[in-house]
Amino acid sequence: MSVPKVFKIHGEVMKKQFFEPMVFTKNVTAVEPEHALERVYAEIGSRHRAKRCQIAILSIEEVEATEKRAK
User: Fold this and answer.
1) What angle do CA 66, 28, 58 make, to 5 degrees?
2) Which of 6, 36, 44, 48 could form an S-S bond across to 63 if both were Cys, CB 3.0 to 4.6 Å?
3) For residues 6 and 63, is the Cβ–Cβ distance under 8 A?
């Protein structure tokens, strides 16, 4: 079994109702970056009624153990 990691995902949501893109940063616990990406698509889509084509992921980075404790 793999150990879960924390990924920091930066992105933006572009919808017609917004005058400018809504920028977001989320920390997600997952085993692989692909799983974290799916989780973000599900959460942002659910909260803001955004489709996957309206969500742009700018970066995915793994958070180090020292950074997790600081927050």
Assistant:
1) 100
2) 6
3) yes
CATH of domain 5-64: 3.10.20.10
Report how far residue 71's alpha carbon sits from residue 56's, in angstroms, rounded to the nearest whole number.
25
CB atoms within 10 A of CB 55: 20
Tell whether the model's pLDDT for residue 67 goes beyond 80: no
Q: Give the residue among 60, 2, 65 at the shortest CA–CA distance from 31.
A: 2
Residue type, 10: H
Q: Taking a C-beta distance cutoff of 8 angstroms, is the pair 43, 24 a contact? A: no
Hey, where are the domains in the chain?
5-64
Contacts of 43 (CB under 8 A, 6+ apart): 26
